[in-house]
Structures are given as structure tokens and as C-alpha cells.
Design brief:
Elements (H helix, E strand, L loop, with lengths): L17 H30 E5 L14 E5 L2 H4 L7 E5 L7 E8 L4 E5 L2 E5 L5 E3 L16 E4 L4 E5 L9 H4 L2 E2 L3 E10 L5 E2 L8
Antiparallel strand pairs: 1-2, 2-11, 3-4, 3-11, 4-9, 5-6, 5-8, 6-7, 9-10, 11-12
Length: about 200
């Protein structure tokens, strides 16, 4: 009768101390976190940002407590366009962010009279803006004001004209104050919408 030698059984990883395995796993997690941070932070702070709507100045297009996604890269490569909805630092208190629609561009003359907005462009064309694509038919642009914008200034107004603190009151917005343009209404999901720039006839 022969006795067979016992089979030697080994388990991978048994030879590595538990403390070393924990340190190795923690190191891998830190590496993943650093990679994610390196990808997410530039997107969050330099490309797009979420903004929370507070107030009724942009109704009915944006309502209180909605979340918007702001594109911060476009205005680094081109100038803002008429009709775009932008986020900017309030000129009288740069710690506050406002959301308004761009109506007048640098060098233009904006005239508000009789409930209408008229723009005189740099090449001398004078046009009463057709804002029917984003203003309700009942909305009247109140006030009597004429202003000629500087080379780095924009005239902005809210879509809810009777309830908007805008350039009719605090004046033009300097180019340096403009943070980005509204790209997407992201929350609530039922209100998800991508915003296109309206066209005007000049």
C-alpha cells in the first residue's frame, strides 16, 4: 500500500500582507479620482456650468427654480450675438449673476419708444425688432429710452419685460461681465429644451 503525497494548494494573493493590499487598492482609487478630477473640473469650470433660475424676469421661457446649462466656451472664440440668452455679472454688484437676452450689440443705438424696440446698426440701418418668436403677444416693452452703446457694451433685456431689471434701468453690460450663453434647460426633465438663436430681418 503506497501513500500518495498530499497535494499542495495555494491561493493567489495569500502571500501579500493584508495591509499592503489595502494600501494598493487605496492607491488605485486615488489614481482614478485624480483622473476623473482632471477631466471633470475643466469641463465644470471652463466649458459648461449649471445655473439656477431665480425670479420671473425670463418667463415664460425660463421659470423660477429651473436649472440651465451654460456654455462658457463659445464667447471665448466669438462675440455674443443678438437674440442669445446670456449669463453675466450684474454691473452694480459683480457677485450676482443675471440671465437676460442680448438685444443691442457694441456701437449700436437702441431706442425704446411706444412699446417697441428699434435698433440702428453700425452701417446705419434702422429696424424695429420683431421679437414675436420669444415674447408673448401681450408683452409691451415699457419705457422711453435711447442709448448708444460703446465698443465693448451690450444692451440686454428680460423676456418678461414688465418684471425685468435690465439695461433699461442699470444700463449696458460690459463685455467683460458676460460669462456665457444659455445652451440647455436641463431640469426639470419635463422642461428639457435646447435653445436656438432667433433671427432678425435687417
Amino acid at each position: 500500500m503506497s501513500i500518495l503525497p498530499k497535494e499542495k494548494v495555494t491561493y493567489s494573493g495569500d502571500s501579500e500582507p493584508l495591509a499592503r493590499r489595502i494600501l494598493r487598492s487605496a492607491g488605485e482609487l486615488i489614481q482614478v479620482a485624480l483622473i476623473v478630477t482632471a477631466i471633470v473640473l475643466p469641463i465644470r469650470y471652463f466649458l459648461v456650468q449649471p445655473f439656477y433660475v431665480k425670479g420671473a424676469s425670463m418667463e415664460p421661457n425660463f421659470e423660477d427654480k429651473q436649472y440651465l446649462i451654460i456654455d462658457e466656451i463659445t464667447y471665448r472664440v466669438r462675440e455674443p450675438k443678438r437674440g442669445e440668452i446670456c449669463v453675466f455679472r450684474y454691473p452694480n454688484d459683480p457677485s450676482q449673476f443675471f440671465i437676460k437676452r442680448i438685444i443691442g450689440l457694441p456701437g449700436e443705438t437702441i431706442d425704446i419708444s411706444g412699446g417697441r424696440v428699434t435698433v440702428t446698426t453700425l452701417d446705419g440701418k434702422t429696424v424695429a425688432l420683431d421679437e414675436s418668436s420669444y415674447l408673448a403677444s401681450s408683452v409691451v416693452t415699457a419705457g422711453e429710452k435711447t442709448v448708444t452703446l460703446g465698443t465693448e457694451e451690450y444692451f440686454v433685456m428680460g423676456d418678461n419685460r414688465p418684471n425685468s431689471l435690465d439695461s433699461r434701468i442699470f444700463g449696458p453690460v460690459p463685455r467683460a461681465n458676460i460669462v456665457g450663453r444659455v445652451m440647455l434647460r436641463g431640469w426639470p426633465i419635463s422642461s428639457l429644451a435646447w435653445f436656438e438663436t432667433p433671427t432678425y430681418k435687417f
